[in-house]
Design the sequence.
């Protein structure tokens, strides 16, 4: 299999998510980081490149330089795709520039700051025919893919209700706010119109749509700010989906002691399922007058029910997988899609199973709608 | 300790909750069932009395007969209190009649069908000075009492948010509806204005108010009926409490495979707690940069933090207690209050720790408000 | 159903297990405590009787007085059975005397101090035809009964291996030793040849034999005393059962922080099961290439697989039951057996499902064998 | 940081553990696989190299060829270390040859087939001064490192007892035996004197010694073969450690439905801890009259107590890590040790925190002793 060349914008020294991107992309051995504008300070970008063993000529000070530099190389030497791991506010301009220069893009979320930007990016992706991925990590977990495939196969019967919770606690105290990642998240200038909903609410909404295969059609929100001077750091959302499914989404960043406790329950006429991110190798299945079932990652019966889950499994049952592997699964499918297209083949549905620009558009519309609903005193707002 | 004499209205052959009342009341050995109008069919009432070893003369056909019969006895032979375990629609008239005849009352919930009836009952209780208890079972669990006392002691710091979920699945299919208890629950005539919210939503709301020590001030609801022809069998509620606390309450009776999965999370500035009814001996405590703690029933450190929990503990740590004991705790405090008052003593706060007529009034207002909110398309309604 | 009259030896003020016996016996309303030699100090016995509302004439100072006193009553007024909740050393003489006087007996475990006494008691029970029960609590749990019935039905295939652990921590420090129950447990004079194995090891062995339906044929033990001057407070035992099943049993009373954490795993060719006393409403079922199943108490599918479990269930699924109910189940079956025999009927297998004098004999042989094995330096000793 | 060059023996197409080695070694980006004798069939080795993007000249047919080929390169181009992932029987000769040729070695376990070979390898490692690592995966988990550091810091007080269980089920049926890895495991010729004890019992023993910091001094075993014609596929072991600590180790490969359920409990005078491999991000801490604590990976309080755990943590709390990361931690420390020695620096204790040739020697002695004990009818055998 062809080893793809990866470039990065962001992901400099000390950046948590940039290092996760690298570990995930490289996990299966078919991606190499060969270029990067890792930091807006050129010396720091160079230093990160040195740490990573990258040719100093390909350690750029800005994304614009990187685009120019890579385009100056012979086509076969250029990066095959660029990963964007910068603060939220820059996702859109960087992604736009990369796409317009002809590079495939893997982008951190939220994709943009406004729904208009999101729409524009979607048009660009469509026009260029390039591959665009978005890092909604949690749909990368194999047991989430199993959940989706169970719903799709009708195992749950007609869906009735979805509850999704996403409590975190790391922004619970002003004094504890960490310099880099916390500061920009809570600042409207770099984070857009929402903090909690933009940062984690969108993950929860994306998870609900992914698993159910249904779109959220309207929302009603009660956002709150417990620590003054911030954007929202908490929110509660009622929502309606297609086909009469109702739902509730709660997210908080000020739940003292909560780590990253994303949980989803999907209720159907025949079966219900529950999946909890902090226990990601299990999927719980409930039904009328039957024992509760715990489907466990890595078993043949899982792969049989869900080829998407089976394909995204690296270790056998009982040898747990976790966050990095979920992340790596998106890179796996994203890069397999690029490879297929490079060979002029149509990517399969399994290869295309990673969050797309459409997910990004929906995420921005979700944020926009919940912010609008809350501002109006909690009224239903259509998406 | 004086053994109190208990009378029952309802609780005939095959009635689940009536038998629970008896087991709970008798658990500590200081209550005896000596009279009952167990069934509206006199022969069946007599038969239940026979099964229970009760004097046939005190097995009545109606609650009116029971009141007359008991009043005809010398005061020291009369029942000390009457437990009402009939379908919802009759709670109010029976309770009213018992109180007005001078009997203390333990009543199943919901207390009445309307807020007006609730207010009237509250007036009667106040006027008569009698002891009135309401069976919101879940606040009887010792670890719920511990949670309340932790909040009260300030261990959680200023409260921020409460999430409470109450999924059940037993009404999830029409065909499976059980003859007695399911039929009247889903029928407006016997259940009032709400099924799901009246039956279990009020438990969840009561739990949130009990643990937090705060009142819900306004609600916004999205109720639903998944099986046609019924009252609501599902509902999602946003709420606001005193002191700026926000919350979310979800309840469903159509969550396939869910049993009785009441769960509550309370988030404060300093600590957060979680309690799950199906795992009732544990209370989870989270905080910033500290290990998660599982406080376990029956230990000295629990009784020290919460005398109310310590008092309501019968077996040592590791010898689990459960639903019946929680139920019995309400009877224990209710009957201790009656004994104190019979001795002309002021009941202590610990003795008074059982759901009261005020809880019943609040429950009815909660139901009324959520039904109104949902009918108006999910708007905020004050309680 | 006839209300049986219960007498007690032991169970005075402050005695934990005596109160458990009373609560359990009375739980279903068909047993009344009417007599007792609650304490060797007559005044204290009288006081306990007063607390319980018992006729002072039937509050005796010694078990001998009780036997005489009850025999002096007309047969229909006498106690139907006597429960023995005294320190270990007295179980045998009291049980013997009660049986020889014609009374049915429910006895705390261990049944006797020696295997010879156990054999003698077995002969007396056989000779008199009286009903004798032994309080190995844990086989009273419905999910343990389900486990037994699964094994019996062949669901696990041929059994291979059993692991049973019973860690407690309450005797982990000398300073913390509680006056009454801890003192006699660790003293050879009142506890026999073993503390840890006698007190909790026998429970674990009994559980293994009950669930598997197989007898332990030989043991190899490594007992230990971590706090000097005591009998064993810890022990590890390898064992062999009938039909080639192997096993391991560990028990400790000095496992810091452990409460009452009895756990059992049974491995068969086709299925494996796990049951954990601190989570008693669940039974875990594992098998090759299938989701793990959690069978949950109170559901129709449980009662269908195991009528013994169904019969011993008081509250619906999701309304947990626990230790007292398990205890009560033994009383239920024990008293139903007495009632059947009083009516000259042969008790059914379901009624006879409580620990018997045979279980007591086996328990004593188990203790004797593990003590002998350990003394000889851990050699195989036949039972 | 210098990127180290890795060679492999074994790890060809379809080999589970070889791919795990590669993912783990490469995880942090400082190791590249540049050479390999991946398969004894040269064409298959070449094909695996092609898949991995390795220079065909460095895809060798045998380990002897690889050693010759690498030695023929200039020293700075040669592999920095060689990972051995072949069937058990070949570990010793390959490791010996690599070390004698001057290459650092990371070896799968068990290290050798006999204790004599183990002793010889230890002598060679000592003589050459090369770095030798052994893949006892489970001590790579950060929460196991935390456990070790808690014990070392005296948090548990004097240790009393260790229980370690390692149930698997994948060899539970003959028909299901997988062609490659199952066949040689159960065959004495390729697996040595033990299957279950050699394959997983040694992991459990190693874990007990690592966490406690104590050596097992004698064992008493009852091994068994449930599926005829095999070496042991099950075993139960009593053991004694230094300082009077007692223990029990059980392992099985025929526990129907068990995946990889390694569990350890360590009991001390003051605290007890429990760690379960299938839930690897948590460490449970129990103590007298205190809430149970769940220490959770990724938190500052964990890194403070255990720098070894902190150093081996890649994602923040709540973003779970798992098996691959544990594996990668051994590679991280192993390669950091190599780097230090290449720079003529003394590796730190944190860098040296990976399983060594001494662990391998102890593992072989453990296997030898338990096999001898069991053959003699379960007698104590000194290690």
Sequence:
């Amino acid at each position: 299999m062809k080893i793809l060349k990866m470039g990065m914008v962001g992901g400099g020294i000390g950046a948590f998510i940039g290092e996760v991107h690298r570990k995930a992309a490289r996990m299966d051995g078919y991606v190499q980081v060969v270029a990067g504008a890792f930091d807006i300070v050129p010396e720091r970008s160079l230093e990160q490149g040195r740490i990573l063993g990258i040719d100093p000529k390909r350690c750029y000070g800005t994304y614009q330089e990187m685009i120019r530099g890579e385009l100056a190389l012979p086509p076969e030497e250029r990066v095959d795709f660029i990963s964007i791991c910068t603060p939220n506010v820059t996702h859109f301009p960087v992604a736009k520039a990369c796409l317009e220069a002809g590079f495939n893009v893997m982008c951190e979320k939220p994709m943009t700051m406004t729904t208009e930007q999101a729409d524009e990016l979607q048009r660009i992706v469509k026009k260029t025919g390039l591959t665009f991925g978005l890092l909604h990590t949690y749909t990368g977990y194999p047991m989430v893919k199993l959940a989706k495939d169970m719903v799709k196969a009708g195992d749950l019967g007609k869906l009735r209700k979805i509850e999704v919770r996403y409590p975190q606690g790391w922004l619970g105290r002003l004094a504890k706010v960490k310099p880099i990642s916390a500061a920009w998240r809570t600042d409207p200038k770099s984070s857009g119109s929402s903090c909690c909903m933009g940062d984690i609410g969108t993950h929860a909404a994306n998870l609900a749509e992914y698993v159910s295969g249904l779109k959220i059609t309207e929302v009603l929100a009660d956002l709150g700010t417990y620590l003054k001077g911030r954007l929202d750091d908490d929110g509660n959302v009622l929502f309606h989906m297609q086909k009469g499914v109702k739902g509730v989404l709660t997210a908080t960043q000020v739940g003292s002691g909560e780590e990253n406790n994303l949980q989803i329950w999907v209720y159907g006429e025949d079966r219900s399922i529950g999946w909890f991110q902090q226990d990601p190798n299990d999927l719980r299945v409930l039904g009328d007058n039957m024992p509760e079932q715990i489907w466990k990652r890595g078993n043949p019966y899982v792969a049989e029910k869900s080829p998407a889950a089976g394909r995204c499994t690296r270790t056998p049952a009982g040898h747990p997988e976790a966050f990095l592997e979920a992340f790596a699964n998106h890179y796996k499918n994203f890069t397999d899609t690029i490879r297929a297209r490079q060979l002029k083949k149509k990517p399969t549905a399994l290869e295309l199973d990673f969050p797309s620009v459409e997910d990004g558009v929906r995420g921005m519309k979700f944020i926009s709608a919940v912010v609008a609903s809350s501002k109006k005193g909690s009224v239903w707002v259509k998406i």
